[in-house]
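During the reporting period the student researcher (J.K.) took over the structure-prediction task from the postdoctoral fellow and processed the backlog of single-chain submissions. One of the processed entries is reproduced below for the supervisory committee.
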Amino acid sequence: MSSSSSKAEAAAAAGLHEALAEELYQALRTRHTVVPLRTRHPQLGIDDAYAISLGILARRERAGERVIGKKIGVTSAAVQNMLGVHQPDFGFLTDRMHIPDGGTVRIADSMIQPRAEAEIALILRSDLAGPGITAAGVLAATEAIAPCFEIVDSRIANWDIRIVDTVADNASCGVFVLGAARVDPRRFDLASLKVRVWKNEQPLSEGLGSAVQGSPLASVAWLANTLGAYGVQLKAGEIILSGSLVPLEPARPGDRFRLDLEGVGSASVGFA
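J.K. obtained the following structure tokens:
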């Protein structure tokens, strides 16, 4: 292949990435869904999807948002089977995604098809830069853990996603809620930590830390190594969402969710 052909192909790919980033950004802002990317552009791979997600992030930053963390998703068998995505995704958290504990999400203002999931969040005290990060390295770099609800949302119609669709769509990020507790992770075997979730004061689900790749520490190590391949660090002070311990649950106006992370603390969120 000639260098001119290579340059033309690279330019075409970059143009497609920008067009799809703009499409998904406008879908986020105006609360509408789009046809799955993979069905329209079957040539797209994960590297393309990540480039699209960076385009969305750049637009959010130009609008005044600030990155405060990262997330890994689709880590548990229950969520993978529910969504038909059989490998983890990854994305960025911004300050405008952070909802206060006990707060209310107005769906009509900011979301399309939200689903709630219970997680263990890690708050870092030092950087993690892959490759070569291990679970032990994640533990050493973690200041505290916190109970967390992530409210995922998809700009892809009917949650009809595969890995390219969700990585491009910033890992189907919506908003997240951290409980008040900040606890030293060295006090626990994180794989054995149990979460219980209630919806409208009725028991909904429960799960263990082992649901996410055997342990939240292993999950975050995967994230650090995966993002490290793109030259991205997990940074000191950032919030890292390690993946859902339970199946995703649709959220509608009037719903209220509460979780208890055994021995750590609780979190709650409502919807209007």
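The committee noted the following: The mean pLDDT is 94.
J.K. will present the remaining backlog at the next meeting.
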